[in-house]
Amino acid sequence: MTDTAALRATIRDIADFPSPGITFRDVTPLLGDAAALQSALSGLADLARPLSPTKIVGIESRGFLFGVPVADRLKIGFAPMRKPGKLPHTVHREQYALEYGTDTLELHTDAFTADDRVLVIDDVLATGGTAEAALKLVARTGATVVGALFLLELAALGGRARLGTHPVSALLTYP
Ligand code: AMP
To answer: Using one digit for the tens of pLDDT, what is the confidence trace for 65-76?
Structure first.
């Protein structure tokens, strides 16, 4: 069982970052604490395993920090989902709305086969716009989405509602 209180204590709140009114949940102290890192990765792997994924996709960039070690624990492969212009091969591209403006994610067209069961991993579920775009991108490859997994969910922002019927799990839930 994950000691969620101990884990939560390693996540630092930064007020008004990156803009006024935003409380940024900084995971760098968690990453720097060996026991907390092990606990977070074990907890995420325990949530991932019952979904029986065959591949994990991590969202740039903090999704990479948690996605690759979880893939390693499950002994499955990993694909990066990146900001525009970073992936060198043919890509699927999905644009999504931010509070001001838009952002874009890309995924290699050959990241998955139609037989793959893909789990999306990121650090934080906030409004859900990023994860929603990620799920659409995975679907474009013909693979099956088995769910979305986060280190922490900011429940008040209602992101989960944007992810349809896909299973959504988070190790920590913030009100
Ligand atoms: P959203 O699309 O609103 O769900 O935002 C999710 C993305 O933005 C994730 O990749 C997070 O890393 C990042 N993010 C959003 N809000 C926060 C926050 N309060 N603290 C840390 N990261 C955040």
So the answer is: 999 999 999 999
Among 124, 136, 160, 173, name the best residue to mutate to test ligand 1's pocket (greatest count of ligand atoms within 8 A of Cβ): 124
How much distance in Å is there from the Cα of 126 to the middle of ligand 1? 5
Residue 30 near residue 37 (C-beta atoms within 8 A): yes
**Residue 83, pLDDT above cutoff 80:** yes
Distance of CA 138 from the midpoint of ligand 1 (Å): 19
What b-and-e string marks burial along 5-43, b requiring 16 or more CB atoms within 10 Å of the CB?
Answer: eebbebbeeeeeeeeeeeeebebeebbebeebbebbbbb
Q: What does the angle CA 15 – CA 21 – CA 22 come to, to the nearest 5 degrees?
A: 60
The pTM of this model reads 0.97
* Two structure tokens written together for 74: 């499950």
In terms of residues, how long is the chain? Answer: 175
Mutate to test the pocket of ligand 1, among 12, 100, 105, 130 (most ligand atoms within 8 A of CB): 130
